[in-house]
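Lab notebook page, bench 4
Experiment: in silico fold of construct C2
Operator: M.H.
Input chain length: 75 residues
Purpose: comparison with the prior construct
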Amino acid sequence: MASSALAKPQMCGLLARRLRIHIIGAFVVSLGVAVFYKFAVAEPRKKAYADFYRNYDSMKDFEEMRKAGVFQSVK
């Protein structure tokens, strides 16, 4: 058995190399999740609010709630 036939394992700098790979991977995944959230959740929510308030009449809504008896201080 020749000991020179086996390659020595790389131990020096192993932790730093693995951390570098994992930090880059975590950054890429978090960037992907942020982009997904922006286009799948935030933009449709902004559009829904804009569509709702485009034709919203607050006085009409107030009068309907007043007639329904929601407010105690308004007759």
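Observations: The helical segments are 14-54, 58-68. The two ends are 100 Å apart (CA to CA).
Next step: discuss at group meeting.
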